[in-house]
């Protein structure tokens, strides 16, 4: 087993909760809100987490919705997954949306609102060409392989 990746974290709010994994082996560490926000049906808001990170170069933080909030309340993230670049040092804000058509939803300070997945990333050197090599899939997309 390899040692966990060391990531420096700064609390930008005194009530910030350090992200943690609910279970051993989980991919996502829970991110928690530091303020209370009520979202009407269809409404969205940037919810502060009170933390800032210094991810090492070559890594990205991906902010994913929590499946329980989505299933029970219709709450998700507008730009899922949100991207936290290695060079970003500001507070992590989660762009939460209430997709329930009739019920308001209240995020309370301390609630787990998203999951942070940290992954290695590759950077690319994009090369402009006149033609791309053929593949089995070709240009089919947007459901072309399903029903």
Concise summary:
The protein is mainly beta.
Give an account of the 3D structure:
The chain has a single domain, classed as Deoxyuridine 5'-Triphosphate Nucleotidohydrolase, Chain A (Distorted Sandwich). It contains one helix and ten strands, in the order βββββαβββββ. It has one helix at 67-73, and strands at residues 8-11, 29-32, 37-39, 44-54, 59-64, 75-77, 82-84, 91-98, 105-107, 112-120.
What Rg do the Cα atoms give? 18 Å
| Rounded mean pLDDT score | 94
Beta-strand content: 35-45%
Low-confidence stretches: none
How many DSSP H or I helices?
A: 1
At the third CATH level, what is the topology name?
Answer: Deoxyuridine 5'-Triphosphate Nucleotidohydrolase, Chain A
Number of domains: 1
Question: What order do the SSEs take from the amino end to the carboxyl end, as H and E?
Answer: EEEEEHEEEEE
Structural class: mainly beta
Which word captures the global form? globular
Give the full name of the CATH homologous superfamily. Deoxyuridine triphosphatase (dUTPase)
CATH top-level class: Mainly Beta
Neighbour order of strands in the largest sheet: 1-4-8-6
Number of strands: 10
Distance between the termini: 42 Å
Major sheet attributes = 4 strands, antiparallel
CATH architecture: Distorted Sandwich
Helix content: under 10%
């Amino acid at each position: 087993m390899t040692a966990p990746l060391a990531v420096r974290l700064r609390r930008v709010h005194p009530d910030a909760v350090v992200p943690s994994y609910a279970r051993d082996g989980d991919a996502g560490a829970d991110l928690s809100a530091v303020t209370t926000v009520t979202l009407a049906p269809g409404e969205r808001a940037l919810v502060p987490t009170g933390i800032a990170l210094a991810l090492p170069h070559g890594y990205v933080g991906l902010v994913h919705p929590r499946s329980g909030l989505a299933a029970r309340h219709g709450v998700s993230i507008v730009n899922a997954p949100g991207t936290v670049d290695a060079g970003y040092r500001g507070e992590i804000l989660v762009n939460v949306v209430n997709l329930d058509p009739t019920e308001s939803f209240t995020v309370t300070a301390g609630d787990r609102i998203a999951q942070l997945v940290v992954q290695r990333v590759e950077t690319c050197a994009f090369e402009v060409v006149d033609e791309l090599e053929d593949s089995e899939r070709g240009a089919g997309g947007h459901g072309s392989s399903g029903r």
